[in-house]
Design goal:
single chain; TIM Barrel; 8-stranded parallel beta sheet; 8 helices; metal-binding; Ribul_P_3_epim-like; carbohydrate metabolism
């Protein structure tokens, strides 16, 4: 059974409290918060004030995904804004080990995300330090994109490395997740499924979350 992390990037921001309370009442395990700076990715989402607002109403842990350049500048601020886990991009962190240590020092669980073109093997040396590896199954920046099929292979390789080395990090997948591909993602080794528009555009979001969780 997968853990589910609905992405509030797809929520109705005119009714954010309503949507968060829906997630609180659902089978969701986390609330995924996508932070974009318009530089690392070609889109701007929101920052600490919205994260704080989400945290004010959320009764699920906040899974904060920083799609930003120089994330070290903001780690303490996002932790203070309510982040339980903070995930940074491998591609944005020239001193990744230092950044991961910095996240851990804030008290948040450290994660590293990989863009679709980045092989999982590049994380070999840092994996023992991580609580989470996030595999992007679309190019980051915009919701509603088509799922990239090579994601299955990446998850399988990462899962095999985890088993061979006896490590305990969780594997999260983000982008284009739906009821059609969720079972295979879990079969290949994914532990957490991020879903945005698939949940929030559903006729019954709570039922959709429950169905994803059974994957």
């Amino acid at each position: 059974m997968a853990s589910i992390a609905p992405s509030i990037l797809a929520a109705d921001f005119a009714n954010l409290q309503r949507d968060i309370e829906m997630l609180n009442a659902s089978d969701a395990d986390f609330i995924h918060v996508d932070i974009m700076d318009g530089m690392f990715v070609p889109n701007i989402s929101f920052g600490m004030p919205v994260c704080e607002a989400v945290n004010r109403y959320a009764r699920k842990p906040l899974d904060v995904h920083l799609m930003i350049e120089q994330p070290d500048r903001y780690l303490e601020a996002f932790r203070k804004a309510g982040a339980n886990g903070i995930t940074v991009h491998y591609e944005a962190c020239p001193h990744l080990h230092s950044t991961v240590q910095h996240i851990r020092e804030t008290g948040a669980a450290p994660g590293v995300a990989l863009n679709p073109h980045t092989p999982v093997e590049l994380l070999t040396d840092i994996l023992p330090e991580l609580s989470l590896v996030l595999i992007m199954s679309v190019n980051p920046g915009f919701g509603g994109q088509k799922f990239i099929e090579n994601t299955y292979n990446k998850i399988a390789r990462l899962h095999r490395i985890r088993q061979e080395r006896g490590l305990s990090f969780r594997i999260e997948v983000d982008g284009g997740v739906n009821l059609g591909n969720a079972p295979l993602l879990v079969k290949e080794g994914a532990d957490i499924l991020v879903a945005g528009s698939f949940v929030f555009s559903a006729e019954n979001p709570r039922e959709t979350i429950a169905q994803l969780k059974q994957s």
